[in-house]
Structures are given as structure tokens and as C-alpha cells.
């Protein structure tokens, strides 16, 4: 029964993603017709250089951010956290800004790594901070997280303002796929690999979610798995921030919806989380392209509305038995 | 601003208030006179307008925050944390979106502001009662819902702003993005009148406000018309939030910072002392800060970032202190 439901859910998500991808490939300002693809015309060029990379970038971002949010929620044992609510996204942007200030000539990979380290540091500081909260204060964690992220953000904003880098900063803070072209998004494939890595250690993460005592009892190397999870989240976050910019709330709402439908066994639910995340972000990206056609609205703006509505719904509904 | 010269108003120990007031006057004088080069008359006129706007903002933000904390009986809640500022920005954006930028700027300022305040009242009441109904007992849930509502209003404003024709948007932009540097001085006149009205009204309410601090049941026992009084207070809060957001734009933690400092320094919880103290502290922060950054350090846009930063820390401190 359960596997049947699982299968149908995943199939539905795959179908939605396929339809949305087809729409995404055919929507844009330039003229494009599917049948001309076979004639080796400009349309093929357009598809190969702009449309396909953009669609792939959206899918990779949506999927990996949703997975990162799910891991975060399992690690912190709290349903209301995601990378931008534990200071990770904001710290990643701060790391990038510091690199741009002090070592502007560094290679992209070096900047990336520093940004990932900053995201990791941000998360660790946050975790140290909330350790002082009683475990019953579930909703305190996201609240403190939002304020914590805001503090880091205002420090970053101050630095950027003083050094005339506000524009650069807004590129990282506002997720947007309009600049994605062939050769400018390939880093995102790494997020796909990281999401797969998370799938490989899915069972260990699930056990970790039962708490430290239980997982040590079951013979799990608690620390190693915890660090592995944190590193995956930090890397995914910083990769997304550096290539397309931050898109808050994906990692919050998608795992919540999937968990309610199919529980927290990651080995089963991670694929659905990834597919749903990709489909939702793709939907918002297409909407952003169509609302004020021929102009574009950044995906973070569109998703901000959808994500906060879903989040409010999660908060306002009757508390579930296991929140 | 209730000018206090009748000592029986104040009860004992209003020394910190006078100290704060003196410091505020010093800040104002410095703000007006530092680094004046060239034509004194021109510079003074310009700076006086700015000073009036900043004082107005300090008054509106600090008084609305203290009132709100009295109303909710909670030293952590502020209107802006619960999304009132973002609501105002959203209502403004909605008006520009509906009327077009040109139509929007053509409206008479007084009528426009009156209409905005009315909308704000309705919106605030709705928001407040939603929050109270949802999380009246669960404070954290209520704050979180408020914060997310704030983010939601900001997101939807951003979305609407993208949908407004760019040419028209520019016309409305000046009104929509105020900050400590780019003050919206057209509204200072109206704002000052509103502030004066609120000061008179609140001065008459001051004893009732003190009674409210005892909690709802005590206040009702002592003969306070609780619902009517809360409604009146919420009305003033909404009006003052509208004034401050219109003049300086949204401020997330400035109110929390002034209220927390006022609660710390004020020797008594009585509103006759606490409200003016909060106002003076708010004025010192804004005008002193602006003097420091603008005239001495030559860094213009820093004040709001610094206030945000400090306010965020104060918020976290209050939360963690409460939990222990």
C-alpha cells in the first residue's frame, strides 16, 4: 500500500517536472519552434546555449536546495529550519563578499570553498546558540534563525555599502536564472552530485534524526554522519548562492509537504523531495518569465510569495501530532 | 511630544528622563551646527526640516513600540517585528499598482495619507487579531507568524513593484523607499500634527495605561473598559507606524532598541515617565547617530545597518534571558 502511494507520488512529480521542463524550454523572448530543432538552425543554438542550461540550472537548484533543507531538518530535529534560516545562506554571501574584497583574483573554486566554509561556520555558531534553548521550544529555533540571519545580512550589507559592492551583493542575495547560459552554470552539477551523496547516506541520516542516544546505541558513528550532513548542506548552499543567488523557503516548505505525505524515511522520501523542489522552482521560474512578458521577475521574488504563503499555512494549521 | 513641567505628573525619580532630554538637546544642536560651511540660512533650513523628520520618526517609533508592549504585556513584541511596517509598504505598493504611479503622485498628500492611515488601521486590526487568535497563548508561534507575515508582505510588495510600469514606478519610488538619509519631508507637516494629537490623547490616557500593565483581569477589575481601550491603543499604534514608515521607511529593530533601553533606564514603569524617556532615547540614537555618521565619519547609509545589528542582538538577548 505504502510503496504504491510512494510510486504514484513520484510518478506524478516526474510527470509534472517533464511537462514543466517542456514549457520552460519553449518559453522565452526569442522566437522558437520545436520542429526547427531538426533543421540545425538558430533555434538549436538557442536551445543549446540558453534554454536547456537554464532549465537544467533550475532543476538542479530546486532539487538540491530541497534536499539540503530536508537534511537540515533531520540534523536539527526541527521541522522549521532550512539553510537560509540557520545563517548558512547569509554566511555564504558574506564569505563571497570578503573574498571579492580581499582576494579578488582568487579562482572561482577557491572563492566557492571559502564561501562553503563560511556557511559551515555560520551553521555551527547557530547550533551553539540554540543549544541553550530548551528542546520544547521548537518554534524558537526558526525565529532565532531568522534574526541571526538578519544580523549577518546587515553586517554584509554594511560592508558592501562601504565598498560600493551593493550590486554584486544583490546578485548573490536574490536568486535569479535570467543570466544562466552555457558555461555559466556548470558548477550546479556539483549540487546534483551532493544530493546523490546525501541519498547514499540516507539511512544513516534517518537514524541520526532519532537523536544522539539512539543512534549511538544502534552503532552509528554520530559525529561523522553529522559532519557529513552539515558539509553537504554548506556546499549545496554556497554553490547555489555563488551561481544563481539565494532562494529562501524551498528547503523549508518542500520537505514539510513531503514529510506529511510519506514520513521521514529518507531512503524513500529524498527522491520525492528533490523532484518536488525542482518542479516548484521551475513553476515559479516560468511564472517569473511570463507575468510581465517580455520582462522577467527574479525567481526569488516569485518563490518568496509562494514560499511564505506555504510557510504561513504550515504555521497556522492545527499543529500536527509530530511537529 | 508631551512637554513635562508639572512635577506631580512624574512621581519620584525622573532624573534619567531629564538627563536623556538634555542629551537629546545637545544632539540636536550638534546636528544643526556641525560642519556648516557657506550660507547659514540655507543650511539651517535644510537641516531643521531633516531634524523635524528625524524627531518625528523617533517619536512615532518609540511611542508606538512602548504602547504595543503595554497592550500585549510583553517586552519583546514590537509592531515592526509583527510585520506592521511591511504591511504599510504593501498597502502603498498596492495603491501605486491600482492607480498607476502618475495617478498616485497626483493625489493630494493629506487625503492620500488619511486614506493610507485608514487602510493601515483595518490591516493592523486584521493582522493583530489573526495573531492573537492563533498564538495568544503560544507567544513564540505568534512572533514567528508575525515575522513570516512581514516577509510575505515584503515579497508580495517586491512582486507588485516589478509588475508596475518602470516609468510609473519611478514616480512613486521616492515615496516608497524612505530611509534615515532620504527622508520623506513632504509628510513632516502632517506627521507633526498627528504626533501632537497623539501626544495629547496619550497624556490623557496615561493612568489607564499604567493600570493595563497589571494584566487584563486586574485592569477590568479596576474598572477599565478593556476592549475599547485596547482598540484605541491599537489605533494609535497603527497611525504612528504609518507616520514613521511614511517618513523614514521600515525599521525592524529600532523600536525594540529604544523600548528596551527605556525600560532599562527608566526608574519607574509609569507611562508618564517611560514614554518621554523612550522618545528621548530614540531621538538620541537617531539624531546622535546621524550626526556621528554623516558629519563626523562621512558614512551616510550606515546608521540603519548599525541600528539593525544592535537591535538584532538585543532581541536575541531578550529571548535567551526570558528562557532561562
Which characteristics define this entry?
heterodimer; A: 323 residues; mainly alpha; ABC transporter involved in vitamin B12 uptake, BtuC; 13 helices; 0% strand; globular; B: 324 residues; disordered N terminus
Q: What's the helix and strand layout?
A:
The complex is a heterodimer of chains A (323) and B (324).
Chain A: H1 2-26, H2 42-76, H3 88-102, H4 108-130, H5 140-162, H6 166-173, H7 188-200, H8 202-208, H9 212-217, H10 222-243, H11 250-262, H12 266-290, H13 299-316
Chain B: H1 15-33, H2 40-72, H3 84-99, H4 101-106, H5 109-135, H6 139-163, H7 166-176, H8 188-212, H9 216-221, H10 226-248, H11 254-265, H12 271-296, H13 302-323
Helix pairs in contact in B: 1-2, 1-12, 2-8, 2-10, 2-11, 2-12, 3-5, 3-6, 3-10, 5-6, 5-10, 8-10, 11-12, 11-13
Outline of this structure?
The complex is a heterodimer of chains A (323) and B (324). Helix content of chain A is 72%, strand content 0%.
CATH superfamily of chain A, called what?
ABC transporter involved in vitamin B12 uptake, BtuC
DSSP strand tally of chain B: 0
Enumerate the spans of chain A where pLDDT stays under 50 for 5 or more consecutive residues.
none
Q: What's the oligomerization state?
A: heterodimer
- Broad structural category of chain A: mainly alpha
Helicity of chain B, in percent?
over 70%
* CATH top-level class of chain B: Mainly Alpha
Q: Name the pair of protein chains with the most residues at their interface, and give those residue counts.
A: A-B, 37 and 34 residues
Helix content of chain A: over 70%
> Biggest sheet of chain A, in brief?
none
Q: What CATH architecture label of chain B applies?
A: Orthogonal Bundle
Unreliable segments of chain B (pLDDT under 50, ≥5 consecutive)?
Answer: 1-11
Structural class from helices and strands of chain B? mainly alpha
Amino acid at each position: 500500500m505504502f510503496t504504491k502511494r510512494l510510486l504514484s507520488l513520484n510518478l506524478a512529480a516526474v510527470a509534472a517536472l517533464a511537462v514543466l521542463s517542456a514549457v520552460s524550454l519553449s518559453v522565452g523572448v526569442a522566437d522558437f519552434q520545436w520542429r526547427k530543432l531538426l533543421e540545425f538552425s538558430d533555434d538549436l543554438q538557442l536551445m543549446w546555449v540558453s534554454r536547456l542550461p537554464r532549465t537544467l540550472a533550475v532543476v538542479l537548484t530546486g532539487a538540491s536546495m530541497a534536499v539540503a533543507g530536508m537534511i537540515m531538518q533531520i540534523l536539527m530535529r526541527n521541522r522549521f529550519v532550512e539553510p537560509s534560516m540557520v545563517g548558512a545562506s547569509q554566511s555564504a554571501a558574506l564569505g563571497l563578499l570578503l573574498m571579492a574584497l580581499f582576494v579578488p583574483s582568487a579562482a572561482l573554486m577557491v572563492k566557492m570553498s571559502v564561501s562553503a566554509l563560511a556557511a559551515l561556520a555560520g551553521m555551527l555558531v547557530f547550533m551553539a546558540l540554540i543549544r541553550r534553548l530548551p528542546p520544547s521550544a521548537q518554534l524558537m529555533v526558526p525565529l532565532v534563525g531568522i534574526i541571526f540571519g538578519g544580523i549577518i545580512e546587515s553586517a554584509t550589507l554594511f560592508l558592501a555599502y562601504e565598498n560600493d559592492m551593493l550590486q554584486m551583493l544583490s546578485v548573490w542575495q536574490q536568486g535569479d536564472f535570467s543570466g544562466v547560459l552555457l558555461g555559466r552554470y556548470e558548477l550546479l552539477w556539483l549540487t546534483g552530485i551532493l544530493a546523490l551523496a546525501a541519498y547514499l547516506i540516507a539511512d544513516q541520516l534517518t537514524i541520526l534524526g532519532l537523536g544522539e542516544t539512539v543512534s549511538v546505541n544502534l552503532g552509528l558513528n554520530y559525529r561523522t554522519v553529522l559532519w557529513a550532513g552539515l558539509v553537504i548542506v554548506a556546499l549545496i548552499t554556497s554553490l547555489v548562492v555563488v551561481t544563481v543567488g539565494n532562494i529562501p523557503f524551498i528547503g523549508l516548505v518542500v520537505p514539510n509537504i513531503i514529510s506529511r505525505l510519506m514520513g521521514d524515511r529518507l531512503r524513500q522520501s529524498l527522491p520525492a523531495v528533490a523532484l518536488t523542489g525542482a518542479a516548484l522552482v521551475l513553476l515559479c521560474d516560468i511564472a517569473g518569465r511570463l507575468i510581465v512578458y517580455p520582462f522577467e521577475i527574479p525567481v526569488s521574488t516569485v518563490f518568496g510569495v509562494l514560499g511564505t504563503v506555504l510557510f504561513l499555512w504550515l504555521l497556522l494549521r492545527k499543529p500536527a501530532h509530530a511537529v | 511630544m508631551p512637554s513635562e513641567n508639572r512635577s506631580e505628573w512624574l512621581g519620584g525619580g525622573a532624573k534619567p528622563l531629564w538627563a536623556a532630554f538634555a542629551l537629546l538637546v545637545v544632539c540636536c544642536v550638534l546636528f544643526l551646527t556641525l560642519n556648516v560651511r557657506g550660507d547659514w540660512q540655507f543650511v539651517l533650513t535644510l537641516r531643521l526640516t531633516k531634524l523635524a523628520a528625524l524627531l518625528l520618526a523617533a517619536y512615532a517609533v518609540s511611542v508606538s513600540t512602548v504602547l504595543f508592549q503595554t497592550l500585549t504585556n510583553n517586552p519583546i513584541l514590537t509592531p515592526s517585528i509583527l510585520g506592521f511596517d511591511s504591511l504599510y509598504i504593501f498597502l502603498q505598493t498596492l495603491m501605486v499598482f491600482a492607480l498607476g504611479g502618475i495617478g498616485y503622485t497626483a493625489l493630494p498628500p493629506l487625503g492620500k495619507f488619511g486614506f493610507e492611515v485608514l487602510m493601515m488601521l483595518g490591516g493592523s486590526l486584521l493582522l493583530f487579531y489573526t495573531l492573537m487568535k492563533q498564538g495568544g497563548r503560544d507567544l513564540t508561534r505568534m512572533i514567528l507568524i508575525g515575522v513570516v507575515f512581514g516577509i510575505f508582505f515584503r515579497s508580495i510588495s517586491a512582486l507588485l513593484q516589478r509588475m508596475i510600469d518602470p516609468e510609473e514606478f519611478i514616480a512613486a519610488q521616492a515615496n516608497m523607499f524612505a530611509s534615515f538619509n532620504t527622508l520623506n519631508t513632504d509628510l513632516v507637516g502632517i506627521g507633526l500634527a498627528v504626533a501632537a494629537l497623539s501626544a495629547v490623547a496619550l497624556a490623557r490616557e496615561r493612568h489607564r495605561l499604567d493600570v493595563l500593565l497589571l494584566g487584563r483581569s486586574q485592569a477590568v477589575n479596576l474598572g477599565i473598559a478593556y476592549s475599547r481601550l485596547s482598540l484605541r491603543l491599537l489605533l494609535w499604534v497603527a497611525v504612528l507606524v504609518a507616520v514613521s514608515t511614511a517618513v523614514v521607511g521600515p525599521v525592524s529593530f529600532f523600536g525594540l532598541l529604544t523600548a528596551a533601553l527605556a525600560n532599562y533606564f527608566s526608574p519607574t514603569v509609569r507611562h508618564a515617565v517611560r514614554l518621554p524617556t523612550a522618545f528621548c532615547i530614540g531621538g538620541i540614537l537617531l539624531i546622535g547617530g546621524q550626526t556621528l555618521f554623516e558629519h563626523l565619519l562621512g558614512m551616510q547609509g550606515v546608521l540603519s545597518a548599525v541600528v539593525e545589528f544592535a537591535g538584532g542582538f538585543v532581541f536575541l538577548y531578550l529571548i535567551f534571558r526570558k528562557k532561562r
